[in-house]
Design a protein that fits this description.
The complex is a heterodimer of chains A (255) and B (495). Chain A has 255 residues and is an alpha/beta fold. Chain A is 50% helix and 13% strand. The chains are: A alpha/beta (255), B alpha/beta (495).
């Protein structure tokens, strides 16, 4: 009997050892700065590194700098529209962790975007930035937007691209207002986001996948913007009565 | 009796001794108890750059050193405006609380206690802060700025026919693009810092001199051994003549070599935001003058335009479009307010406003500023007794409608649209026939606006409702008389 018990324990312990890394990988801990229930939030996660290898300090410092400047810039530019939260210890291992349940959970917490950085190869500095654009999953799925970059590259160029990627913030906020039928609130953010997104994908050094997905997102946003103007016209707000569609029967942001 | 003054006492004493400041500079003011020159029309307040990411061995307080250098360099460029101050804040040794711009602003704007002195109502202030990062031979700098006048609005009134449109710059909070400097530049900053920090007996780098004082250079000094601040009484080329008050109460004159960039470190070129900050001081100065019913000096307007042009020349054209757009707007407004020939100034401003609109097409303020000045020009361009002539009036209506659509919580934006329709009601039209506005349509739009309900918006977008804060009426300031308008329909209606 004792032998059976010992064997069971050994089997369970063995299973735990085998299972532990993937189980841990699959778990995203809650953000350490949850924020208020009313405010829209952007989660900025910790930097992810390959398990079991020593990552050069300079790469880690760079990744942390990019995270901190992203966080700081967002809080300066968003002001009272949303709050960027630093999530200590939270770091997804892979984008598949953002399944429907996870994204719904973010949505329920009024999290409109989650951002993370990951160093994938400590020797070459290859890595990625991930953006979970929660509200856009219904208009331009999937919600996760991964951008490849190299942390060993020219830092001023990486910093500039990092700044350009803040274009996602007005895009997700505007889309969220649109989905909440707050068309008047949605339009300023959608127009700002569209302009900034266009700048981002026009950058010569942009990742080709990012450019393609960015173009797709802009095309979808144009539809959302057109519909927002049409819906706003039905609100009876007089300024919309003066606006007319273009020759393609589309409403668009000022150019 | 031996009376010893603390740094605070002495700064206050300086402010009292020299109530009408020409220019003033105060380096090394502690963040916790910020100080400004209350009498100065505009203060430039530079916070220490967060250099916590710099490796310990080479850091040597570079963030604080850079802030001092910025303050000194900026001060040397804003002397032409007169009555300005530049303050450099720094952390007290051992203080681990970061120097937070919101805390500093709340204190010197009187929203919270803790400031040694406050910005006077109506006077301007520019806050500058940022972060530094160093890696091998490279240094990266990211700067932020915010500008405002205490208890004053940046809105301006533009006459359009017998109505007035309200417009303002697109933003008062600026994020600049990251800048890259080399380690050599950092060393030059250090060298320039040392030069900037020395008061010399005459204007020569070889003249006997001593440090103003410095926390970075004088850790552990007792507070009352530090000098207390200084006034700038003159400028000759790159040299600023200062008068400082020592802790023993003595007044001492000396020279500081500012703007060392012309010698060995081109700070303006490598940190173009300096041009923006200096131009912003000029803009705020012109607004303070205008609020006091003084027409800003044309030379000052020209200097402001040059400083913003320097910024635009070296700025990152793709990654700081808001900063570039606001620079165009502030330069345009200053030119308009300071130009002896209003129409000439307006014409130059319109070019700036159009460029700003192209940079930030989604900004309702950029649209309004551009359209309002076009209508203002049309109002002034006609002969007495004639109605205003509007080119493509339907397009103008759509632009103001877009401005209102992009600022849904703004009563000002919808009122601007209403005022425009009222001007268009009696205007002459030119341009494409398809862009005409018919009278019944105009009446219908005016009626719609008058019957409008308060907008149902989730967020409160902007502080556009400050009836207690007077707006600058541009034509009143410039004493420009609008040619007589035709009698309104109501006036000529048969009794």
């Amino acid at each position: 009997m004792k032998q059976v018990t010992n064997m069971c324990c050994a089997v369970i312990a063995g299973l735990m050892i085998v299972c532990a890394p993937p189980c841990l990988r699959a778990q995203l801990i809650d953000c350490s700065m949850s924020g208020s229930a009313e405010e829209y939030k952007i989660y900025v996660d910790d930097v992810n590194v390959p398990p079991g290898v020593e990552v050069p300090k300079v790469l880690l410092k760079r990744a942390n700098l990019l995270r901190d400047t992203f966080l700081r810039d967002l809080n300066v530019t968003l002001q009272d529209q949303a709050s960027a939260k630093r999530c200590l210890g939270r770091k997804p291992r892979e984008k598949s962790e953002y399944n429907d349940a996870q994204i719904n959970s973010l949505d329920n917490l009024r999290v409109v975007m989650e951002v993370w950085g990951a160093i994938e190869n400590q020797s070459t500095g290859e890595g990625e930035f991930g953006f979970v654009l929660v509200p856009t999953r219904s208009i331009a799925p999937p919600a996760v937007f991964v951008v490849k970059d190299n942390f060993n590259g020219k830092l001023d160029s990486i910093l500039k691209r990092n700044k350009q990627r803040q274009a996602f913030a007005p895009v997700v906020l505007g889309t969220r207002y649109y989905q909440n039928h707050k068309y008047l609130d949605a339009l300023p953010l959608l127009c700002q986001g569209r302009t900034q997104l266009q700048v981002m994908i026009s950058e010569p050094e942009s990742d080709s996948q990012l450019v393609q997905r960015g173009k797709n997102l802009i095309a979808k946003l144009d539809g959302v913007i057109d519909d927002s103007y049409r819906q706003a016209k039905t609100s009876g707000e007089p300024q919309f009565a003066a606006l007319t569609p273009d020759e393609n029967d589309r409403y668009s942001c000022p150019k | 009796m031996n009376i010893r003054l603390t740094a605070v006492d002495a700064l206050i004493l300086i402010a009292m001794t020299f109530p009408v400041l020409a220019h003033a500079g105060a380096p090394h003011i502690p963040c916790e108890y910020p100080f400004v020159f209350s009498e100065a029309a505009v203060n430039l307040v530079v916070l220490p750059y967060d250099d916590s990411a710099i490796s310990e061995a080479s850091a040597r307080g570079s963030g604080t050193q850079l802030a001092l250098l910025l303050q000194m360099d900026a001060l040397s460029h804003i002397l032409g405006y007169g009555n300005v101050g530049a303050i450099q804040l720094e952390l007290t040794p051992g203080d681990r609380t970061p120097c937070n711009v919101d805390d500093v602003a709340a204190k010197i704007l009187g929203q919270r206690s803790g400031a040694q002195t406050q910005i006077r109502r109506g006077n301007g202030v520019v806050f500058v802060w940022g972060l530094m990062y160093e890696e091998d031979d490279d240094l990266y700098v990211q700067t932020y700025a915010r500008f405002l006048r205490r208890d004053a609005t940046e809105e301006l009134l533009f006459a359009a026919g017998e109505y007035k449109l309200i417009a303002k710059p697109s933003s008062q909070l600026i994020t600049f693009a990251p800048r890259h400097l080399s380690k050599k530049d950092l060393d030059r900053i250090e060298a320039a810092y040392l030069k900037a920090n020395v008061v010399r007996q005459w204007k020569s780098d070889s003249a006997p001199g001593e440090e103003l004082h410095g926390i970075a250079k004088c850790g552990g000094c007792p507070p009352d051994s530090r000098p207390d601040g200084f006034l700038v009484v003159d400028r000759q080329e790159d040299w600023i003549q200062i008068r400082r008050r020592l802790p023993n109460g003595q007044v001492q004159d000396g020279w500081i070599h500012a703007n060392t960039g012309t010698m060995d470190f081109e700070l303006d070129r490598q940190l173009p935001e300096l041009g923006f900050l200096e131009g912003t001081v000029g803009y705020l100065h012109s607004r303070v003058d205008a609020d006091n019913k003084r027409e800003p000096a044309e030379e000052a307007g020209r200097l402001t335009a040059e400083q913003f042009a320097t910024f635009a020349k070296f700025a990152d054209q793709n990654n700081e479009t808001v900063a570039l757009a606001v620079a165009e707007q502030l330069a345009g407004i200053t030119r308009m307010l300071s130009s002896r020939n209003y129409l000439e100034g307006l014409s130059q401003a319109q070019v700036s406003f159009r460029r700003a609109r192209q940079l930030v097409p989604y900004s309702p303020d950029a649209i309004t500023l551009s359209v309002a000045t076009e209508l203002n020009r049309a109002t002034l361009a006609r002969n007495a007794g004639e109605p205003v002539t509007i080119e493509n009036p339907r397009l103008v209506a759509q632009q103001l409608a877009q401005a209102s659509a992009l600022a849904p919580a703004s009563d000002i934006a919808i009122n601007n649209l209403s005022s425009y329709y009222k001007v268009a009601r009696t205007a002459n039209y030119k341009g494409d026939a398809a862009n005409r506005l018919e009278k019944p349509e105009i009446e219908q739009q005016i009626q719609r606006i008058e019957n409008r309900r308060p907008p149902a918006v989730e967020r409160f977008h902007e502080s556009d409702t400050h009836p207690e804060q007077p707006r600058t009426d541009v034509l009143d300031l410039k004493k420009v008389v609008i040619p007589a308008l035709p009698q309104t329909r109501k006036d000529i209606a048969p009794r």
